[in-house]
Amino acid sequence: MGTEIGEPLFGDGQKLELPGESDSRRVREQLGFVRKLVRERYRVELTATDGDLEIIQRILDDGVFNKTQTYELQSLGLAFGEAIRGKLGLDWVVVEDIYGRDPALQFRQSAITVFPLTMISKRVEDGKKVDLENIALGIQDLIDEHKDNADSSQVGHDTIWKKLRRKLPFR
Hints:
Number of strands: 4
Distance between the termini: 26 Å
Low-confidence stretches: 152-171
Number of domains: 1
Structural class: alpha+beta
Strand order of the largest sheet: 1-2-3-4
Radius of gyration: 16 Å
CATH architecture: Up-down Bundle
Helix content: 40-55%
Strand content: 5-15%
Order of helices and strands: EHHHEEEHHH
């Protein structure tokens, strides 16, 4: 038994849903923005694989966006999410709370849910160095640590959420 669509996710008013048309459109638009930037600036195409991490990291290292460019940084976050999605076995979902709806990636309908939208923007806004490879490895470690219990209720949402926030402050 995993975390079902419509079920409260973390007990603090957050609800998990499948992406609706407006959610999908938002993600497509933001990914389109990054694809266009990469094509024009670096003359390569994003492939929605972990090979994109190097390109997204280069955008960050080149200082293309500053900390006030939240939309652009969050678009990079979604591109990062798309890059790790397939390799780590994650699916796009939407988490809704009192602040709105945000795209997230979930592992096998479990409590393992990460928020790539803000993974980059929050770090840049806080003046921190962003190391996408390290972030991806941290997510992989978290999944590896809990994947045996991910499809059961043995590991609660709160336990995973607390560990995740300690390892990688996403939001």
